[in-house]
Amino acid sequence: MPKFQENALILDHREVADRTWLMRLMSPKIALEARAGQFVMVRVRDGIDPLLRRPLSFHRTFPEEGCIELLYRVVGKGTLLLSKTVPGMNLDLLGPLGNGFDLPAPDARGPIALIAGGIGIAPLFDLMERIALSNPAFDPQQMNLFYGTRTVAELLALSYFGALGVRVHWSTDDGSFGHKGHVTRMFAQFAEDSAFRPESLYACGPLEMQFHVARWALAHDVPAQLSLESLMACGLGACLGCALPAASPDDPAADGYVHVCMDGPIFPAGAVQWQKLQVHRPPPPIFLSD
Ligand SMILES: Cc1cc2nc3c(=O)[nH]c(=O)nc-3n(C[C@H](O)[C@H](O)[C@H](O)COP(=O)(O)OP(=O)(O)OC[C@H]3O[C@@H](n4cnc5c(N)ncnc54)[C@H](O)[C@@H]3O)c2cc1C
Ligand code: FES
């Protein structure tokens, strides 16, 4: 799969929810090759500080126009610097990287579940668009998006999903909109109450959320594709910094590693040893000054 380093022109850049920015870039080579679930490594500014690129997933891709969109949450120095860039500037991108999601079979008709925790919505949007485009006979209402954030200010607006025609189930941890509580709880409750059994399940969000999704998928024998996160330095398999403990089908306790940038970021539910991961809550919002 070809990878490119492209100097991409920023076409549009705006805040669409609390600390959540949407950026549209002209990047024709990368746009042509990108698959949903893959990512780019972004140099957030020239020079050596910060030294490392930051991984961001494709939020939407427009191969014919040569454009890509990134949706990101400001959490630290790199993403804060990124949020200061403006249309007309250029960004150095490396991609597309990683494996990407497998789309449902062309004759798939049954329900699909997508679970997004916070900024985990970013790659799932591209995936939903591609599922709809790749299979015009597929009823978008069969796509059930379970989308949760900490509070209503972090949610993307309803209008954002309007054109897709998917069923959105909303949750917020503080109950400021939709179901009160974690998105995985809402999903499990919905599945139990309505005997909902998706033909396939896709998820992106914090590792703690993915742990619950994986447990549900394995217990109910539903094929799942989870986009897993890990801190990345190179994105290319060179630094081995993105390793997660791998589960061996023959011996679940055997030690081994998967590398999120090369082997993933998309994995089946049983690919990692969840019990060995330090499953913790995401860091609290930090104070951001100008
Ligand atoms: C394959 C992949 C795709 C991603 N796609 C997106 C995306 O589409 N949109 C988006 O907003 N973010 C995405 N991320 C996460 C994003 O890369 C990090 O939030 C970003 O690198 C943080 O950089 P920073 O300099 O702002 O923060 P830093 O100063 O590096 O870190 C600030 C805080 O964020 C935490 N953090 C940093 N990196 C990660 C990470 N990878 N996962 C979880 N917490 C992290 C740190 O532990 C720290 O507490 C993706 C990560 C991966 C691995
Ligand atoms: S980030 Fe360097 S090997 Fe994966």
UniProtKB/TrEMBL annotation:
Superkingdom per UniProt: Bacteria
Cofactor comment text: Binds 1 FAD per subunit.
EC number: 1.3.98.1
Main enzyme class: oxidoreductase
Coiled coil segments of this chain: none
Key words of the record: 2Fe-2S, Electron transport, FAD, Flavoprotein, Iron, Iron-sulfur, Metal-binding, Oxidoreductase, Transport
The keyword Metal-binding appears for this protein: yes
Residues annotated for [2Fe-2S] cluster binding in this entry: 234, 239, 242, 261
GO biological process: pyrimidine nucleotide biosynthetic process
Binding positions for FAD per the UniProt entry: 54-57, 71-73, 78-79
UniProt similarity note: Belongs to the PyrK family.
Name the record gives this protein: Dihydroorotate oxidase B, electron transfer subunit
Lineage: Bacteria, Pseudomonadati, Thermodesulfobacteriota, Syntrophobacteria, Syntrophobacterales
